[in-house]
Design brief:
This protein is 70% helix and 8% strand. It is mainly alpha-helical. It has a two-stranded antiparallel sheet with strand order 1-2. The model has no long low-confidence stretch (mean pLDDT 89).
Length: 128
């Protein structure tokens, strides 16, 4: 995907680039692209003599999906457990601690805005 996020590519271009890093041959690249196409991650268009492949998902979308999957598999969905494990495993700098505070503060503000919007639409009152 990294190669396709950088630029649209043909099978040969992908094989040449990925072959350097992974040793993959053309058949492995074709299989990988076929599976990714079936999953809706990539698509192709005719480019004359060769198909040109391009991504249908962004790097951010994939990153978020992979992070959610990792969190669910390893920490049973508990963000707190994951953060605790990361913090215990390494000493955080003051800058990193402040960054975490900022992230949590922003999350609190976002949650409050969503809650206010639900209340304005009357959703919160139905449950009371």
């Amino acid at each position: 995907m990294n190669q396709l996020w950088e630029r649209e590519s043909t099978i040969t271009e992908l094989k040449n680039e990925l072959g350097k890093e992974t040793g993959w041959d053309k058949h492995i690249v074709i299989t990988m692209l076929s599976r990714m196409e079936k999953k809706g991650a990539v698509a192709h268009r005719d480019g004359g003599r060769a198909k040109i492949f391009y991504p249908l998902v962004t790097r951010e979308e994939v990153s978020m999906q992979e992070t959610r999957g990792f969190l669910q598999k390893v920490y049973r969905g508990s963000l707190g457990m994951m953060v605790n494990a990361m913090v215990e495993d390494q000493a955080l700098s003051e800058e990193e601690i402040q960054e975490l505070y900022g992230i949590l503060e922003q999350a609190g503000k976002s949650r409050a805005k969503r809650s206010e919007a639900r209340d304005e639409r009357g959703y919160g009152n139905r449950l009371r």
